[in-house]
Design goal:
Layout (H helix, E strand, L loop, with lengths): L1 H19 L1 H27 L2 E11 L2 E12 L5 E5 L11 H28 L4 H9 L3 E6 L3 E7 L7 E7 L4 E10 L6 E11 L3 E11 L4 E12 L3
Antiparallel strand pairs: 1-2, 1-10, 2-3, 4-5, 5-6, 6-7, 7-8, 8-9, 9-10
Length: 234
């Protein structure tokens, strides 16, 4: 009886010890998942460079659609995405006088803001291997187990102080399923969120199927969808 009690106590102590040093187990898992994720994304990028697709960007203000732009996209010889407009810009209707100048000034300000916001999206999507590794080396990555053989990796201070990139990964394929970004433009008061949904092309390459940016301070939402992938004949 005494032996059973001692063995039970030892097992409880071992079990408690697993939680006394959670960082060790967590670091092992984080390192493994980041390495697998980086390899998966790198392989996908090689494949995606053989394709062209259609990018549709919709800008909404206070819930009302203000513009819709479609571009044909492909990777150039320099490895950067090249875009060819598929839709003509909407005709401008300028008002005269002071009211016209005020509206034109507001439009230019909004256009500049949107360009900055869209450029911000590109810094987070697709996730950058070097930035993920930098977060890991700075011990700013946490891992959260989810149901269905999934985990969430959260990278703090990914690009800017106080921002975060949270990626949900499928452990069976080491592919990202979705991402949530909390960041800002010029200051933390100018908060921006990104919701990204990933998809798989021909069961071999992962790509960002849709990205939604919301800037609450400006009542602006930007949705970018990538569709119609087809292999480029070279």
């Amino acid at each position: 009886m005494k032996t059973k009690i001692i063995m039970k106590a030892a097992l409880l102590a071992t079990f408690a010890g697993c939680f006394a040093f959670p960082g060790f187990a967590q670091n092992v898992n984080v390192q493994r998942e980041i390495a697998a994720l980086k390899a998966s994304l790198a392989a996908s990028q090689v494949i995606l460079k053989q394709y062209e697709w259609v990018e549709t960007t919709v800008i909404s203000l206070k819930g009302d659609e203000k513009s819709r732009q479609m571009n044909s996209c492909y990777y150039g010889a320099d490895g950067k995405v090249q875009k060819t407009p598929l839709t003509a810009p909407a005709p401008e209707s300028k008002k005269r006088g002071l009211r016209g100048r005020i509206e034109e000034s507001k439009k230019e300000e909004m256009t500049a803001y949107m360009k900055e916001a869209i450029n911000l999206v590109k810094q987070y999507v697709p996730p950058d291997a070097a930035k993920m590794q930098a977060s890991k080396d700075a011990n700013k990555v946490s891992i959260t187990p989810l149901s269905g053989r999934r985990v969430q990796l959260t990278f703090a201070d990914y690009i800017k102080p106080g921002d975060s990139l949270a990626l949900v990964l499928d452990l069976a394929t080491d592919r990202p399923l979705e991402a949530k970004v909390t960041t800002y433009l010029d200051s933390p008061e100018d908060a921006v969120t990104l919701d990204v949904r990933f998809d798989v092309l021909n069961n071999i390459a992962t790509y960002a199927a849709s990205t939604t940016l919301v800037a609450e301070a400006k009542n602006i939402a930007v949705t970018v969808e990538n569709t119609g992938y087809r292999k480029v004949a070279r």
